[in-house]
Design a protein that fits this description.
Two copies of one chain form a homodimer.
Chain A (H helix, E strand, L loop, with lengths): L5 E3 L9 E3 L23 H4 L5 H8 L4 E3 L2 H7 L7 E3 L1 H7 L4 E6 L10 H13 L4 E6 L3 H13 L2 E7 H6 L1 H9 L3 E5 L5 H5 L8 H14 L3 E3 L6 H7 L1 H13 L5 E5 L4 H15 L6 E7 L4 H4 L1 E6 L8 E6 L21 H8 L4 E5 L1 H15 L5 H20 L4 E6 L7 H8 L10 H9 L9
Parallel strand pairs in A: 5-15, 6-7, 6-9, 7-8, 10-11, 10-15, 11-14
Antiparallel strand pairs in A: 1-4, 2-3, 4-5, 12-13
Helix pairs in contact in A: 2-11, 3-5, 4-16, 5-6, 6-8, 11-13, 12-13, 16-17
């Protein structure tokens, strides 16, 4: 390590004071969500059974900035501001003229960027007098983040964990329980949605969402919390990009391309939105690249239309790229990227050609993560390995073109709970599943009639 | 969380520039190690088969400060300076007038304080032309830290992992392999020491040390690396305490008592030594408390005499508290604290009454760790849970006495790889083993005649 990694660290008083809301800068009117009962535009009142009004207001706000409540900033201080690094050792290993930077969100107690939104969601629910939050989790990153946030604010937390993950990832479950959460294997017998799916014992994210929503609707003192997709979730994650803008200024560089993994969109939106605002205002020509698994290629192979957020069709329909709400992606290790749909905001940006999307194979991503661990020293989560692959490919393209290129990517979490996947990769037994177009076509054929989105 | 946790963060230019060497301030002459072949004082030449001269010079130096090489400081920048927090939520939960601070070392890529010494050890070996390091590891914290450091400096790394841990902790093994290390199950068939112990298939730390040392002695291009006990290891860890002094000044508080877990002594020494120097110089009256597991109570129940560092008797004998070098502690989850001996430096300070020692039960420590996770949000390693228990007990004693008391403890690592232990605690099935005095007496009876230490 003759020329070392360089870190750019902000002082604590630069924890952002306001989130960036891109809705204010988007061209045209945003398409509304639709009520699943009526297929008519859903208003705030349709959401109030499961979300507190403060979050609903954030969801529909067109203010360009939304102040971060002081208790939320105080909780952020546990791990924020997060570091931004220049990956000099990786650059050297790639023999590239590109300069590669990464923002590292794995230093939170839950190990990923997810607490950035779990904290304000727990806070606003507490303020609204709610005593319990329900949610779903796949690989466990989101469930453990909400369990952590609920512990800090004194809320009960009830997590429906996808059955196959519950069985295979007992340690993420233990983590949630250590923070005091109750964890149910989904499908459970606690809900109608769960009982209806007893023939699918391994479960799915869509089924777990249906269960969590069902409980929240039934109880006055209970709300539901979602870890991605929605506007207010992406809003909370913009602390990543706001800090990164200040850190790139410290580094004296301006990113030519910004890369992040995209499942439900909060990882990508978190780093991209503050930079996207500059682009939409004509202040930069930065490219944006959302990378997703080839096993669940929502942005690159899905259709742009209204669809449900969950399997059972309990949630509002959203205008987004989708593979069909009952499409079940093959089991890749990047559980956080196995979602049939995507953020309406990110979907619209891809549709408009403002954001590029690329699908990557699992083995290629792990190869990149291994090279990263051995040069930069950090073992990445499988989700984040997609961003590393994207960044390495851009750096190799820069070498090919003989161009200096400034690359910034979001390293959204560490891989401490994913070593079985690294094990499989190292032993040559990691599967490399591809998406089934036939399954997608079948799932899309089962969708209801909805208004057009174009 | 009405009154939030407070973090004290240093700017990067306050990564220490020199380690603190307490040898300069200790009363009297330090007792030398003894050669296992002759039982005579061992000189630098006795160590040169397995350590580079730069580390041997650090081991025997009496200079009060030793400069940190710039490439080591640069590598430290990956995660240093580490944060220091005031545990306001925990204080409130305990209803104590005490002010509790903790230094958090779990933000390193390997998840503990161990890279603080792995980095300079890898660096000095690289400088000396060594191409490979061997070492042992129990629970895996040390092995993964050395694997990480070797990846950064381009050294090969060969780890002998205690058999029972190798079987039970596959993910720490995968972590080492991800960083490019070779991991052997110990006892192995690669060494005489391993073959001699084939009747103990679950292995022990002492056996694994014997195997790693044997390989290093045989090969010119290979050295051995130890993660605790020795003076130069404690020296490297003083970056913890040096930073903590600056951070306690930021907080405007002076610790009345400093607490850390003690296995081989590097965790305790790391935070304590810079403060101990002030005490030895008459500049403070801080108390120091080393906490250890009741299952392996070296400082509280061991005898102070010369003993080997390993089971096979290959290492020099050191003057220290010991339970007998072939004593096998019961299997508690704090694998890093299951060592028959202790740092000669810490042992001498306990012997002189400058440092207090206390043995704690495993279940009491996990109860403390759970309370900590649910108030402060961080899930601690089992080793660190001992320091939490110690700090809570001091805070409760302060409440009892109606005293303001300033408590500082070292939270040496996170518990991501120890969730099975939390699981056992939460389900009420965690064992609470005690130490066997009969086993210790038998182990001590097997010790060779050595010169007296008093």
């Amino acid at each position: 390590m003759s020329e070392p990694t360089t870190k750019f660290l902000l002082p604590e008083d630069q924890i952002p004071t306001a989130w960036v809301n891109l809705m204010a800068d988007l061209p045209g009117e945003p398409l509304p969500p639709l009520s699943p009962a009526t297929m008519q535009p859903a208003g705030p009142e349709d959401l109030s059974a499961i979300f507190p009004m403060a979050l609903i207001q954030q969801e529909v706000s067109t203010e360009p900035e939304i102040p971060i409540p002081e208790p939320v900033r105080e909780a952020y201080r546990l791990w924020r501001p997060t570091p931004l690094y220049r990956a000099r050792s990786l650059e050297r290993a790639l023999d590239t003229p590109a300069r590669i930077y990464y923002k590292y969100e794995g230093t939170s107690p839950a190990g990923s960027h997810k607490p950035n939104t779990a904290i304000p969601q727990a806070y606003e629910n507490k303020q609204a007098g709610i005593t319990k939050l329900t949610t779903e989790t796949g690989a466990g990153q989101w469930g453990s983040s909400l369990a952590f946030a609920c512990a800090l604010f004194g809320l009960e937390c009830e997590v429906f964990m996808v059955g196959s993950s519950y069985d295979q990832k007992p340690y993420r479950r233990s983590m949630m329980q250590t923070w005091g959460a109750t964890v149910h294997r989904s499908p459970s017998t606690l809900t109608q949605a769960g009982r209806d799916q007893s023939s699918h014992p391994t479960g799915s994210l869509g089924i777990a969402i249906s269960e969590a929503v069902e409980l929240a609707v039934q109880r006055e003192d209970t709300n539901y919390s979602l870890g991605s997709v929605l506007n207010h979730v992406l809003l909370h994650q913009t602390v990543i990009g706001i800090e990164a803008i200040a850190q790139m200024e410290m580094a004296g560089d301006e990113p030519d391309v910004i890369i992040a993994a995209c499942g439900g969109g909060s990882n990508f939106g978190g780093i991209a939105i503050p930079f996207l605002r500059r682009k939409l205002r004509g202040e930069s020509s930065t490219r944006f690249l959302a990378v997703e698994p080839a096993a669940c290629p929502t942005l690159t192979r899905g259709v742009y239309r209204y669809d449900y957020g969950d399997t059972a069709g309990l949630t509002p329909l959203m205008p987004m790229y989708t593979l069909g709400h009952d499409f079940v992606p093959p089991p890749v290790h990047a559980g956080g990227l196995r979602y049939h749909g995507d953020s309406p905001l990110v979907s619209a940006l891809v549709k408009e050609g403002i954001v590029e999307a690329r699908a990557l194979r699992q083995n290629d991503c792990f190869a990149a993560a291994l090279q990263f661990a051995r040069t930069e020293g950090i073992i990445a989560a499988p989700e984040s390995s997609h961003a590393i692959r994207g960044a390495i490919d851009e750096a190799l393209a820069a070498r090919e073109a003989g161009e200096e290129r400034v690359i910034l990517f979001n390293l959204s979490g560490h891989g401490d709970f994913d070593m079985a996947a690294y094990d499989a990769y190292l032993s040559g037994s990691l599967e490399d599943p591809e998406f089934s177009e036939a399954d997608m076509e079948a799932a899309l054929a089962r969708l209801p009639e909805t208004p057009p989105v174009g």
